Structures are given as C-alpha cells and as structure tokens.
Amino acid sequence: MFCFGLLQTHASKMSASWISLTFLCTMVCMWTSVDCWSYYYSNKTMNWEQARDWCKTHYTDMVAIQNQEEIAYLNDWLPKKPTYYWIGIRKINDVWTWVGTNKPLTDEASNWAKDEPNNGKTTQTTGNNEDCVEMYIKRREQTGKWNDERCGKPKTALCYSAACKNDSCLYGDCVETINSHRCECYEGFYGEKCDQIVKCNKDEVTVPDKGSVNCTHRYGDFFYDSLCQYSCEEGYNLSMTRPLRCTASEAWSDQPPTCELVQCPGLSHPDRGSMTCSDPLGLSSFQSTCVFTCDEGYVRSGSSSDVLQCEATGNWNASQPSCNPVQCSSLTELENGFINCGDDANTKFTYENTCTFSCAPGYKLVGSETVTCMSSAEWSESMPHCEAITCQTPEKEDHLIVQCSGLESDLRPESTCSFSCEAGFELQGEQTIQCSGNGEWNEVAPTCKAITCQIPEKGDHLIIQCSGLESDLRPESTCSFSCEAGFELQGEQTIQCSGNGEWNEVAPTCKAISCPAPEISPRGVVSCTPSPSSPPSADTQYPLGTVCTFSCDEGHELQGDLSMECAHPGQWTSTSPTCTAVRCPLLEAPENGHINCSASESVYNSQCSFTCDQGYSLEGLERLTCDHHGNWTAEKPTCKEAEPPSEITAIASGVTVGGAVSLSGLSLAMWLLKRLRQKVSKFELNSNSDIEAPPQVYKNSTENLL
Ligand SMILES: *[C@@H]1O[C@H](CO)[C@@H](O)[C@H](O)[C@H]1NC(C)=O
Ligand SMILES: *[C@@H]1O[C@H](CO)[C@@H](O)[C@H](O)[C@H]1NC(C)=O
C-alpha cells in the first residue's frame, strides 16, 4: 500500500478546507480513506479498452489530467514502466475527447509530447490508427507528456477514484483535489459545507404609491434569492420591471421601483382638420381622449376611429388619423375622347380637383365639359360622353326624293345628300347639301314645288278662261282667250302649260277693231264721225262704227256711196266714192248764129258765147257758163229777126247775184229737188252723228282747186 500527501495549494482560499493525505496504491484497491481523490495503477499491461474497463470496475475511471501539478505529481509518484500508462483521452470521430466527461480536449489543456500526436507518421506504418493516448512517466525526454498510440497496445492502466460524496457540500459543488476535495459554495451560501444562507433587509422592500409588491422566497423569508415583484394599478407603469432580488452580498439588487403614469405618444393636429383632447390624469396620458374632425372635403384616414383613447398599455386604441381629401371615383376612360385630371396621380380624383373632357376629332361632347370632385365624394356633374358628329337626316318633304351617301342614320361630316322631285314637281333650293364639321348641313334641304305655269297676264280687254284654278295651273292645263266687244285677238286663242312650267305660246292681246284710212279721190272731201283727234295720215286707223261722209269739190260729182261705216271685222261698208268733173251738155251754134266756147269740153265754169248773124238779134243770154251741177246758166239763146228786148230776160237778170255763180231761182229749186231724190237713203243712216259732231271736212289737198 502507498499513500502520498499532496499539498493543497488552494487551502488558504477556502474558508473551511481540509486536506487529505491518504493515498492507497495497490493492484487490488483496498483503499479506505473516504474524502480523498486517489490514483491507482495496474500491475499488468492491457490494451486501452481493457484498461478502461479495469479502472471503471475497480475505481471511478481512467485518469483525466486536470493540471500541470497533477502531471508533476504522477510523474514523481508512479514507477517507470517501459510501455508507459494509458490515460482517459481517446480519438472519437477524429476529435481528441476526455472519455470521462465526453468533452473535447482543448488546446490549453493539451500536453502533447514534441511532434505529437503524429498518428505514427514517423514510422513506416503510417496511418496506424493511433487513437489512444499514453503518458510518458519517468522518460528521459518529454516526461509527463502525451503520445498517441494504437489502442491495441498493452500498457499499464492509470485510474483514479473521486473523493467527493453526495452530501459533501449542501449548497455548493464538491471539487476534487489531489487526494482530497473542497466545497465551492453556490452564490448566497457559505460555510464549510455551504449550509449557511445570506439574508437581506426586509424593511428595504417598500410599497410605492399606486403600486403593490409580492415577494416569493426560495430559501426562506427575505433570504438569498428571494424575489419581490412590484406591480402598479392600471394605467401606471413600474419604473423598473424586474423584481428586487436578494443577492449574495446581502443587498437587494435594486432600489424599489415607482409607479409612473402611462404616457401615450404625442398626437398631432392633422392637416386639414382639428383635434380636441381631454386629459383627466395628465397630458397625453392614460385615459386621455382625443377627438379628431376633418375639414369639409376631407375624410379621416389611417385610423379606424375618430376618438382615440390612451390605453393602459401606453398606446392609443387606434392609430393617429390624418385628414385626406375625399376621393371621387376614378375616371379612367372616355370612349372616343380624353380625360384630363392633371398630372399628379395623387390628386387626380380628389376633392376640388377638376377633370376636363374632350372628344376625338369627328366626335362632339354631350354633357358637361368639366367635373369637379365635391366634398360628398361625388363628381359635380354626370360623366359626359362623346358622340359621333352626324347631321340629321334631311326631312322627307312631300314629293322629295333623297339620296344620301352612307347610312341615313349615320351621316358624318363630308356626307352628302342629293335631292330630286317626283314628276310634275321641281326642286326649290340646292340639289346637293353636305354635312359640315359641326354637324350642320351647309344648306337647308330643298323642297319640291308643283310645276305650274303663271297665270297669263290680263291684257286690256282680254277675257281669259283657264281649265282649273288660276293659282294651280299644272302642265297640260290650258287657257283660252277672247276679247271684249270692239276688240280682236292678236295671237293664239288657246295656250297650254308645258312640262317645264312655261306656256307653249305667249298669251294673245286684244286689239281694237279699226278700219284703214278711207281713200279720198281727187277733188274729193271726206268727213268722219268720230274722227281721230290728230290730223289723220295715211296710217290712221278708224275705230269700229266710224262713219265717213264724202263730198266733191264744186264742179265735181260723187260716184258711189255718199258715206260708209267701219264695220266688223275692220272693213268699211263700201268702197270710197270717186269725184268726177261735172260736164254741161254740149251746145251747138244757134240757128243763124255762132257759138264760141272757152274750152273744148263743157266743164264747170267753161263759157260759151253766142253771136247771131247779121240781121238777127240774139234772144237770150249772150254768154252761158257751165255751173257746178253741169247745167248751163241759162237756156241756149236763139237768133231771131231783129226785134225789141222782152220782159222775161229782164226778170232773169234781176235775180242774178253778183260774182261768178249766178243761178236763177227756178234752176236752184230744181237742183235741190233732184239732189234730194238721189241721196235721201244715205243721209238717213247717220242722222245722229250729223247732229252731235259737226262734220269736219277733208279733201284731197292735191286736187283742191277751190
Ligand atoms: C377608442 O376609445 C374611444 C373612447 O372609448 C372609443 O369611442 C373608440 O371607439 C375607441 N376606438 C376603437 C377603435 O376602439
Ligand atoms: C271767139 O271769142 C274770142 C274771145 O272772146 C275771140 O277772140 C274770137 O275771135 C272769137 N272767134 C270767132 C270765130 O268769133
């Protein structure tokens, strides 16, 4: 049996340490000391596995090297063995591991010999699975150091047995030392076996205003690790939330906390709105209430509530509202047109913004040109729309035939409509009209008017008789004409309205019926009733009913009718009479006498003188003159045997009135009688005109010898 003392270097630090100097070293351990950490080794060699089994069977386990002191101690104490000693380190999954604790070997704790571990690389048999560790003891070089070796090699087992028992330390850890152990007390405990507890001052645990405290004790009232948890009434927060703890230094971990009124984050007045708060406990604190309102045209947003209350959690029960402009429905598309709501995408459809509408070419806006977003979130006007610009179908007047380019229901600008009329009607207005860009026709549509002929002009004295109404003389209508009495028609008696609204002939006129100027024979004179006011000429016309009376110069005799009348149809009732010179009977020389006439023919005013032979005296007028009746102024004288003058001659001479004309009373009476007998019928015809208008007398001037 071998026992070795080990100076416990930590003894001075321990308040209650003890040192065991008992060592037991034997092949079969008969060790009796109970409070000693002891080493043992085998007499025989064995491989690593067998060595560990042997240690675990007889002791605690294979040796785990704690420090250099321990190494020095072992190197000093153990006998030299040629194969050295197995220790409790092994390569597991390529990591050097303490097999007792199953923890990897750290660099600090390593105590490898020079160039180790090498896994046998220095020998020819490299890769030798040198997975176990031996410790050199009493080697010439590198003594106390470690070397990796194949686990199957036979070496001496090096074991230990622990000194600590379950009840070695009450509130602390038992630490093995070489051949001994010590207690490392837990915090708050002291004493050799860690059975004493630290205590704190109970009076320091005060209760704050609006708060309460609840202590829990792990080891006893207000001993180490007692916890005093504070809490506050609703709406108050602890200035420190962690509990007060009784620490190992016999002091509480903290000062007792206070209860502080819960604060909510400050709220701000919203733009375009207002906020009214009431603060019963403190500004913007627990139970403060704020009411938000938005200006007209703005609505709450970013919050579910108009009224915010500060809750015990320090949060408002809803988020801070802001006032956003009312949003009207978005206007996206205008068929065949454009919407302009401004460029700012955020304000396009918001309160007070105005959108403007326009239409594509060929379309016109129907409805409002602009709309404004109102506070009610509605647009001020209903949406307009774009309508194709079309002209209205021309009205279908009676008898009008319309022919349009394109559908009548869709007459766009540039479209045209042409017109014609049914037969018998004519177009009044443009034949073709065109739809202009503003949807209006460039001209009014024409109408159809019945083709009619104008009423013939009512010339003087004209009597018109038409088939049908005078105001509606259609083609084929006829008008017939006649003249008042005394007039005759000049032109067609009947005219017809032709298809183009024109008469086939001009309307006739009425002309007064008249007779041509009467012929006046040489030595003739005419007198007409009534007669043209101006001096007549060869062209003068004499109205119907005119009566012309003729006479001849003295010494001439009328041949034909004394008068004539202008009668239908413009003809004199007779031809004009002629005047022939009066001739007296041819005188021969009286018996026993001679005759001497002034002219060879016994015309008016020619004279014949008579002389008697010697012895005879002329009985009667010596000279006879041919008067205008063709009578000699006296009986042809005779030549008698000379006798005194008679009474008859004296009487005849007595009635002779001076001048060229001398008629005896008897011969004048006889002429008148003869004249009356000849012309009585003619004078009776126009006795009236003789009275009313005294006849004016015209005569053929060239032949006027009076
Ligand atoms: C917040 O609290 C106020 C006051 O109690 C209440 O009127 C409101 O409705 C609450 N809001 C919400 C979102 O709960
Ligand atoms: C006839 O009368 C004229 C004139 O009176 C006269 O000159 C002439 O000699 C007369 N002749 C004869 C045959 O007497």
Blueprint (SSEs and pairs):
Elements: E1 38-46, H1 48-58, E2 61-62, H2 68-77, E3 85-92, E4 95-98, E5 103-104, E6 132-135, E7 146-149, E8 155-161, E9 172-177, E10 180-185, E11 189-190, E12 196-197, E13 211-216, E14 227-232, E15 236-238, E16 244-245, E17 259-261, E18 273-278, E19 289-294, E20 298-301, E21 307-309, E22 322-325, E23 337-340, E24 354-359, E25 363-366, E26 370-372, E27 385-388, E28 400-404, E29 416-421, E30 425-428, E31 432-434, E32 447-450, E33 462-466, E34 478-483, E35 487-490, E36 494-496, E37 509-512, E38 514-515, E39 524-529, E40 542-543, E41 547-552, E42 556-559, E43 563-567, E44 571-572, E45 578-581, E46 593-597, E47 607-612, E48 616-619, E49 623-625, E50 638-641, H3 647-654, H4 665-685, H5 687-692, E51 698-699
Parallel strand pairs: 3-8
Antiparallel strand pairs: 1-8, 2-8, 3-4, 3-6, 4-5, 6-7, 9-10, 11-12, 13-14, 14-16, 15-17, 18-19, 19-21, 20-22, 23-24, 24-26, 25-27, 28-29, 29-31, 30-32, 33-34, 34-36, 35-37, 38-40, 39-41, 39-51, 41-43, 42-45, 43-44, 46-47, 47-49, 48-50
The chain binds 2-acetamido-2-deoxy-beta-D-glucopyranose (2 copies).
Global structural class: mainly beta
Main beta sheet, described?
8 strands, mixed
Helix content: under 10%
Rg, rounded, reads: 89 Å
Strand elements, count: 51
Quote the average pLDDT: 82
Percentage of β-strand residues: 25-35%
Number of domains: 8
Shape descriptor reads: rod-shaped
CATH superfamily caption of the largest domain: Mannose-Binding Protein A, subunit A
Tally of contiguous helical segments: 5
What small molecules are bound in this structure?
A: 2-acetamido-2-deoxy-beta-D-glucopyranose
| CATH topology heading of the largest domain | Mannose-Binding Protein A, Chain A
Unreliable stretches covering 5 or more consecutive residues: 1-36, 647-666, 675-706
Return the CATH architecture of the largest domain: Roll
CATH class of the largest domain: Alpha Beta
Domain Sushi: 198-261, 262-325, 326-388, 389-450, 451-512, 513-581, 582-641
Domain C-type lectin: 34-160
Main location: membrane
Family: Belongs to the selectin/LECAM family.
